[in-house]
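Our consortium's second objective concerns turning raw sequence data into structural hypotheses that experimental partners can test. To show how far this objective has progressed, the report includes one record in full. It was chosen at random from the queue rather than selected for favorable results. The single chain below, 210 residues long, was entered without modification.
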Amino acid sequence: MKNSTRKKSVLFGGVAALAALGIAIGVSSGLNSPHEAVASDIPSPEAQLKVLSQPKTAADKLPAFLAESLKNSGLRPKTVRFIGEDQENKFWVSTHGDIGICLLTEAKFDGGAGGISCGDAQHLTETGIGLVSYFSDGKTEKAVQAHLIPDGYASQARTLNKATVGENLILGNPAINGEETVVLAPEVNLRSSKLLPTLQISDIEVSEAP
């Protein structure tokens, strides 16, 4: 079943993404139109991601520019949790008052640049939350494809790598390998023995930094 909701990936920050942070705030507060009715048997984001129930640590604190950009967006700061990083990016997850769940990233530039992609609990269950971001500081360009996946799921993908970033995050570099379709399948028979629907990257609307 293909989701009726359309995901969007928004970029913002001090280095390159948007000239005015107010634009990011306005867009991020309405990233998705939630499903008209989420099925009652769909687990909540908290039930699908045990990291949301873990005690907060220093690593869970968002960079100042990211927190400031999103302070009026509906994101719930108390639920922000760090979920992994690679050489180029850091990643957090947070619940959202109107949407459900968000994946956030910070590109490791001196001035700071970030991105966010959100979906509801049904998105997380069926396809994961995908984000594709391209960053530039005028000298260096970086790109990342990331997917937030529920506890107990494995990904089937050609180049995306889960092993180095933890249970809930898989990463790839779309500038090198292209943007890749992801299929989720239960590692343990938690919900279903069949493959879950494919996340089509075309469903993610990418905003490129100038």
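The partners drew two points from this record. The chain has one domain: 7-206. The chain is about 15% helix and 30% strand. Both points have been shared with the crystallography group to help prioritize constructs.
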